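This part of the workshop introduces the protein records we will be handling. The question running through the whole workshop is how a given chain folds. To make this concrete, we reproduce a full record directly below:
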Amino acid sequence: MREWKGSVAFITGGARGIGLGIARALGKRGVKLALADVDEPALARAAEELPGAVRTFRLDVRDREAFAVAADEAERALGPVDLLFNNAGIVPHSAVEELTYAKWDLALAVNLTGVINGIQTFLPRLIERGSGYVVNTASAAGLVSDPNLLYATAKFAVVGLSESLRLNVAKHGIGVSVLCPGPVDTDIVAHTRSLEEGVALRDDLVPAVAAFLAGGPGIDAVGEMVVAGVERRSPWIFTGDEVRPHLEKRAAALLEAL
């Protein structure tokens, strides 16, 4: 059983959604929390509700210099970060006929490069200390593709990155999991629209997607699933078994193609 109390966690996208669920699960276990998000009002609300030592940082995960500053300030205030949750993300969407370089750049910068920035900011520190744990948030769509090309591309990359990172850092005493949520009841669709209207879901698609997400577990339940996954040092953390038949079909097709 992991000793949580006194640990320090840095959580991107930590002010709401899955990030806030993770923060709540850790906070009640005595973990000191550094929450990073682009939404300052949400950060203020999270800091007010969470127990124990909490520091907040207005951070766009695309900004490497700001990431380094936030990391330094978090460690000065709370102590060495040993739990890193690269969770910030958006759900960009574009019809294939309407793709542009700008849409690709935004989707990959937030959902993939943002994860890389978190890893590269903290990994040298974790290696130097010889311990730590990293959880990268991907998606079930990072294991079995769906028609959302912008989203699936980045999330497949996060899964591969996490699996390879796990192989590389085990010798340094560092664990890695990739979180592959299915539907989770969050406001990620609205958040994506507020960040960049150009990659938001079309209005006619929003009701069906919102209903799909609302059918999944809430953020507090997901936070507990993440804690349990870290306890098990699981390579993959899931929030439900909705993806199972799709994984089985994909695996069978891959094996058939050999």
